[in-house]
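STRUCTURE:
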């Protein structure tokens, strides 16, 4: 079964994987409310981006406004453009906190009868794959193999961060009924952010210990990462 995108983000957060704050919005006003800096004296809106998620899949479509929207008028124009080009019947609009520029990669997982669960690291040019679970040495080997195909190295801190992320993703994949997934990740100078996630499972994901008393109200379509904002 296909996992709801917000549920994907919550599952990743449960395993300590940093995901951008996100929410499905159904109006420009809803998107503006999402961008408000809650409990802050600064009246400025938090820059956001808008993306489309089509029904029947949890992958974000290419139709997106990646330029950060920083004012009420910009959000209203962006939302109106989405509605004109997509239509409310053809997709849901996802608002997400804008993320600083960086290097974009992808991490995916698959399950087959021969190799079981495998995890792969992708760039636009190449990918490398390894069976899970990944220990520290396995994560290091995967990153080194990946960098070897790109004929370039990265800073030691970035490599260690990526190895740490792969270890957590491996744990998530090994300990859940997820059968396939893809994560779009942006690497920053000293951190990373998962921008998009899609998953399929053999049975429902249950993370009840992370739900609070408001989990099933209208804000159930919003995801707040538990870590840094």
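SEQUENCE:
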């Amino acid at each position: 079964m296909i996992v709801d995108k917000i549920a994907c983000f919550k599952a990743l957060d449960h395993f300590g994987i940093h995901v951008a704050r996100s929410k499905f919005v159904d109006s420009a006003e809803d998107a503006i409310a999402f961008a408000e800096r809650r409990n802050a004296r600064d009246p400025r809106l938090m820059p956001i981006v808008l993306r489309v998620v089509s029904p029947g899949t949890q992958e974000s479509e290419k139709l997106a406004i990646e330029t950060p929207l920083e004012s009420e008028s910009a959000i209203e124009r962006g939302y109106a453009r989405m509605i004109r080009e997509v239509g409310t019947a053809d997709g849901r609009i996802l608002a997400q906190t804008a993320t600083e520029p960086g290097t974009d990669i992808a991490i995916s997982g698959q399950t087959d009868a021969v190799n079981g669960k495998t995890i792969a690291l992708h760039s636009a040019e190449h990918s490398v794959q390894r069976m899970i679970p990944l220990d520290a040495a396995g994560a290091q080997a995967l990153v080194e193999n990946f960098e070897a195909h790109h004929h370039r190295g990265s800073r030691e801190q970035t490599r260690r961060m990526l190895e740490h992320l792969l270890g957590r993703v491996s744990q998530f994949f090994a300990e859940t009924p997820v059968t396939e997934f893809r994560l779009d990740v942006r690497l920053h100078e000293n951190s990373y952010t998962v921008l998009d996630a899609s998953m399929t499972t053999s049975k429902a994901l249950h993370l009840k210990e992370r739900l609070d008393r408001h989990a099933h109200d209208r804000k159930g379509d919003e995801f707040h990462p538990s870590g840094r904002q």
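REMARK: Confidence is low (pLDDT under 50) at residues 210-219.
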